[in-house]
Design goal:
Length: 258
């Protein structure tokens, strides 16, 4: 059943024409609100993009370069919120915990939010995921693409997330094998995860429960590690029970936005 939380619609990204690096960070620093800010900056040259990257490191600002297109000269910047981070970290850490329990964590590289450039265009298009990782040592060294990418969507529309997914596959020449989209839908108040799994909140029960449809989330071993599973190895499964726990964590962040 729906909750009493106020539904907040997905937003179209605001559009700002880029003038200089200082003005860009002035806009970022003046941004307030509970939800992820999703902004298109127009007329950003590749040199400007490099300057913005350097300034971000200098200022230690926790902004994310969702996507940069050198042809259209559009830079998409996001400012993550607690809800946004909970959406992707809840899934990635669930997978990471299974790696540790199965003693395979040393064969995995956490890549995080590193910037990736389209293959063959080192100074061109780029993007950053929310949670990323890949097998070790196959992903050792700069510029090696992850096999797993998780993208979260709070105010970003689902169509935008689908475009993100297609970009990862295309830009990496399909070296990225799995893209998980974790989307919170403020229209119907359901956290939706691509595969496609829907988690709904049922307030008629005491305590409140979470209904998971279409089963557990399965991450294929071959796609993650680029090899066949060996003895006592197999696919990674985030169970229905884990997804229910994950939903509770997401909803606790939503409750904090009342």
């Amino acid at each position: 059943m729906p909750t009493s939380v106020e539904s907040k619609p997905d937003n179209d990204p605001q559009t700002v024409r880029f003038t200089n690096v200082q003005d860009l960070f002035d806009v970022i620093n003046s941004t307030t609100g509970d939800f992820l800010t999703y902004t298109n900056y127009l007329d950003v040259s590749p040199n400007h993009f490099t300057e913005i990257q350097r300034e971000r490191e200098k200022r230690r600002r926790k902004i994310r370069f969702r996507r940069y297109n050198s042809n259209s000269r559009i830079l998409i910047i996001t400012i993550p919120t607690d809800l946004h981070e909970t959406l992707h970290l809840g899934i990635y850490m669930g997978y990471r915990d299974q790696l540790v329990r199965s003693d395979r964590d040393k064969s995995w590289k956490d890549i995080g939010t590193a910037t990736f450039r389209q293959q063959g265009h080192p100074g061109g298009d780029g993007g950053e995921g929310d949670s990323t990782g890949g097998p070790w040592p196959e992903c050792a060294g700069a510029g090696k693409w992850p096999t797993l990418v998780i993208e979260a969507g709070d105010s970003e529309k689902l169509d935008g997330l689908h475009n993100d997914m297609r970009w990862w596959f295309r830009a990496s020449n399909h070296n990225v094998k799995i893209v998980i989209l974790a989307k919170f839908d403020h229209h119907v108040l359901e956290p939706v995860k691509r595969q496609s799994i829907t988690i709904t909140r049922d307030e008629t029960t005491s305590p409140v429960s979470y209904n998971v449809t279409r089963g557990a989330l399965v991450l294929g071993f071959r796609l993650l590690f680029l090899r066949d599973p060996g003895p006592q190895e197999g696919d990674f499964v985030l169970s229905i029970q884990y997804l229910q726990w994950y939903a509770g964590r997401v909803w606790s962040e939503v409750r904090g936005l009342d």
